[in-house]
Amino acid sequence: MKFRRKNSEALADLICGNLGSHDPAPGTEPKYFPYRSSSYITEFFQELDTEWRHDGSTRHRWVADVLDSMLGEPHDGPTHPPEIFCRLIDHLMSPSDATNEGPDRQNALRQLNEVLTKEGFEAFYGDDRHCYIRHVGTNTVTVLQANPHRPLTAAEVKRRNSLAAYLGRCSEDELIEEILLPLFRQLGFHRITAAGHKDKSLEYGKDIWMRYTLPTQHFLYFGIQAKKGKIDASGVTRAGNANVAELHNQALMMLAHEIFDPETNKRVLVDHGFIVAGGEITKAARNWIGNALHDAKRSQIMFIDRDDILNLYVVTNLPLPAGALQVERDPWGEPPF
Predict the structure, then answer these.
(1) Are both 120 and 240 inside the same structural domain?
(2) pTM score above 0.85
């Protein structure tokens, strides 16, 4: 995706706050976007979790170059701008930055749309007071969400590789404590409780149990059986791997055993179970478990493998665990696989 250069520079003028005046003369327009000097431009992009730093050159031209780079990031087609660009528009239109008008920022929105409509897009405020972008021709709205199947940016690919190296080195407890617990909290689960591996007698097939609140305020309970290595269907499983038939039995035990929710003071059954693999789930293992679940008419057991963990962790913008940062700083260490 690419904007015409004059439109990129016009949008850059809004980000820099170059238009209008704080003390307008009669008949002239006041300033609706805050003026940003070099340091505040750098701060603006830092708040978007990006690495761009203003280099002291002409502000609106430098920002226009950054916008062109953003628009060149992977995206879901011509009607959906890249996620980073949508986040920039939402950040630019924050009600807290209203200048010479109310928090609805109708004048700022008008100036923004004078630029975006020339490229076939329109900005608008949703009920949540966030600013979204709509494609004028198809009326398609780009909604920011954690989509693990979208193309990753160059920075996200780098973070993904660092996390993959960490998964190759971490223990099973570190997989649970450093990766899975933060990930499921970020995804909206509550009461996440790890059984740990010190007292195996109390697990009953569960490494983690957690609760999810539906929009109707009803609860669903989930259990997780986590394995660090590869899950296979081999008759003789290698050291470090796990057999899918054994995990299936553990998942059935997970679904059959009650847990106690201290917030409701009730014992409840687990509604759904995840089998999570820090390594690959082989094709043979997927076929075996698929046939077993189909024959038993069970839809309660789901799978998350290594690629799912990596993509979900990166697109939800979670900070890398300390061990992954160490792997990133130590490129001459042992290979992760």
Answers:
(1) no
(2) no
